[in-house]
Design goal:
heterodimer; A: about 110 residues; Immunoglobulin-like; 7-stranded mixed beta sheet; 4-stranded antiparallel beta sheet; 11 strands; about 50% strand; B: mainly beta; 6-stranded mixed beta sheet; globular
């Protein structure tokens, strides 16, 4: 069964450093999402992406964050200058179509900012 | 407005019992209500979902009950099994202008099923 993959599984970085989290959505999916989950808390929406541009973004997704689909398969989340509070599990998700289709989540990248 | 409130925070049920998790929402524009199951170290996986035009949806041992007027929905797990032990998240979404379907999650319920 097709699945969303994410790399790396774990990332440790120093505060102020840039990190890029990578996702490979399911191949024929059209809508892509990033969510984050701070340890022990709920999953929070960050950004949605469709047709090579941001569809919607949350208040969390400030100027330090950016997303890109550099080729036909990868979907990346960049944090330009990491802060301690960026430490979380970051999940990528994708759907084939709009409006209520199942969002398939990747296994996540655990980011630790020291 | 985008908040989804979930209770209880944790739940312990005997094997064979019924697990009930409740959620409430404010935004009447929400039109899709999924439940996700998450095991430690894994991403959330869709369990079952409902739209507001029906009051109940059943898939195997899992049932969603939906009360549109009260803006509440709940997950019932019948004949709960130890393998059901996981964290359960309710969520809600509405379709954005481009069709993207951003999910707003509840705070999660950690279910433990005792053998």
């Amino acid at each position: 069964e097709p699945e969303v993959t994410q790399t790396p599984s774990h990332q440790v970085t120093q505060m102020g450093q840039e990190v890029i989290l990578r996702c490979v959505p399911i191949s024929n999916h059209l809508y892509f999402y990033w969510y984050r989950q701070i340890l022990g808390q709920k999953v929070e929406f960050l950004v949605s992406f469709y047709n090579n541009e941001i569809s919607e973004k949350s208040e969390i997704f400030d100027d330090q964050f950016s997303v890109e689909r550099p080729d036909g398969s990868n979907f990346t989340l960049k944090i330009r200058s990491t802060k301690l509070e960026d430490s979380a599990m970051y999940f990528c998700a994708s759907t084939l179509t709009s409006g209520g289709e199942t969002q398939y989540f990747g296994p996540g990248t655990r980011l630790l900012v020291l | 407005q985008q908040q989804v409130k979930q209770s209880p925070q944790s739940l312990i049920v005997q094997k064979g019992g019924i697990s009930i998790i409740n959620c409430a929402y404010e935004n009447t524009a929400f039109d899709y209500f999924p439940w996700y199951q998450q095991f430690p170290g894994k991403g959330p996986a869709l369990l079952i979902a409902i739209r507001p035009d029906v009051s109940e949806k059943k898939e195997g041992r899992f049932t969603i009950s939906f009360n549109k007027s009260a803006k509440q929905f709940s997950l019932h797990i019948m004949d709960s099994q130890p393998g059901d032990s996981a964290t359960y998240f309710c969520a809600a979404s509405t379709r954005g202008q481009t069709g993207a379907n951003n999910l707003f999650f509840g705070t999660g319920t950690r279910l433990t099923v005792i053998p």
